[in-house]
Amino acid sequence: MGKPRQNKKKTSKSREKSVLGPGKSVSKRKMNEDPATLLEQATVFLQTGQPDAALPLAQQALVLAPANSPHQLSALNTVAETYVELGDITAAKEHFQRAVDLDPEGTIPESQGGGAEKFLWLAQLSEEGGADSVAWFEKGVSALRHIIQTLEGKTSAGDVALADEKKKKMANALCAVSEIYMTDLSWEEDAESRCEALVTEALHVTPDSPEVLQTLASIRISQLRLDDARAALSRSIELWRDLAPEDTRIPDFATRISLSRLLMEVTMELEALEVLERLILEDDHSVEAWYLGGWCLHLLAENQQAPADAEGEDSPEAKRHASLVASREWLKQSLKLYEVLEYEDERLRDHAMELVQEMNKELGEDMDDEEDGEGEDQEGEDDLDEEIEAESDEDDEMADS
Question: What mean pLDDT, rounded, does the chain reach?
Answer without folding.
Answer: 87
